[in-house]
Amino acid sequence: MKDENFAGNAKSATDFLGNEWHFNCMGCAIVNGDIQVPGGVIYDGDVAILAADPEIPIPGFLVVNIKRHVRSLSELNQKERHEVADVIACAEKALKTLGISEVTLVQEERSSHLHFWIFPNYAWMTEKYGKGIAYLREISAYARESVTDESKREVLEAIEKVREYFKSHNISD
Ligand SMILES: [Zn+2]
Question: How far is the CA of 24 from the centre of ligand 1 (A)?
Fold first, then answer.
């Protein structure tokens, strides 16, 4: 996987259902609906949206995209910061209900469009690679290479459960 792809700066992507997408900015394309992310948008807020990572088929691997095309958390106003934190916290609570006890939160300013990865930890990842941020790239590549119909179904089911959680909870609680 090329570095620019990993940072979300690529100009095209093939999602884990096999759909190919072309765009100038993946974050903007997701926000504008130019990419129909697998499983659909989970939460559409005033300033941020939550969806599953389109390319990496890991159940509960979620991405919070800011609606504005900005690079850094430092460019957000207070309203935006509050909603982003609420969405991340609510997503993490939803993942706990799926039995995911630990996540890794990632934000890299080398990506031109501010987004946060909420990366779940599963026992197989620790067994195969070890724990920590250093392994996320390898784990992601492995998940892509070893995808099956069954694992796609698991990802889509997890998306549905997170969506139900958001429907039945107030994100600012
Ligand atoms: Zn953008």
Answer: 8
Average pLDDT, the chain: 94
Ligand 1 centroid – CA 21 distance (Å): 15
pLDDT-derived band at 1 (thresholds 50, 70, 90) equals: very low
Give the Å distance between the CA of 111 and the centre of ligand 1: 9
Q: Report all structural domains of the chain as residue ranges with CATH numbers, in order of start.
A: 3-168 (3.30.428.10)
User: What pLDDT does 71 receive?
Assistant: 96
Tokens of 127: 């067994």
CA 9 to ligand 1 center in whole angstroms: 9
Sorted by sequence, the CB contacts under 8 Å of residue 119 that are 6+ apart come out as 58, 61, 103, 104, 105, 106, 136
